[in-house]
Amino acid sequence: MSTETLTPATALRVPAWSDALTLNLPTLDDTHREFVDLLARAVQSSDDELPGAWDAVISHTRAHFELENRGMEATGFPPGGCHTREHSDILAVMQEGARRGALGEYGLLRQLASELGTWFEQHAQSMDNAFALYANWVGYDFATGAIAHPDRIPPAPEPVACGAEAPQTIG
Q1: From the centroid of its chain, how far is CA 166?
Q2: Inter-CA distances, 28 with 21, 63, 120, 136, Å
Q3: pLDDT at residue 123 greater than cutoff 70
Q4: Are 69 and 62 in contact (CB under 8 A)?
Q5: Cβ distance 28 to 124 under 8 Å?
Q6: What is the mean pLDDT of residues 150-167?
Q7: What pLDDT digit, counting tens, does each position of 30-48 carry?
Q8: Which of 79, 88, 94 is CA-nearest to residue 126?
Q9: CA angle 50-55-57, nearest 5°?
Q10: Which residue of 8, 13, 16, 21 shows the fewest CB atoms closer than 10 Å?
Q11: pTM, entire model
């Protein structure tokens, strides 16, 4: 088991909530705040506390992503496929982190928690922000699943690979 001590040269960035992450959707903002707090706790955990702290991050993240994924599916959020795929990829990385942590690679697990904080800032300010604007526009209620303006939901597009352009119709 690792008892790595972090020196100033190897100090990890501790994720912290900032107003820049606010989406003005209380349900998502509360979930995101909790995610950031759990990541910070994992980065700062002792070796003995780290596996439990990481399990809490994973458990929260599953529920967090399921909440968003349900909303994207219910509202027909056009780039929802790319967004949910990113969620799936991140959960796979987190599971690998848990596997490596079980082998005593605590430094790696702390580094992962720190890096996920950096990833999350970008994810929240881009993908989650786009979804939040859309969810507000269609009037999606995260608590009930009700949609106030279903007439604003566009017809389902043909599936497009993430980062690819939609096929163009000629004629």
Answers
A1: 25
A2: 10, 12, 13, 12
A3: yes
A4: no
A5: no
A6: 73
A7: 999 999 999 999 999 999 9
A8: 79
A9: 95
A10: 8
A11: 0.86
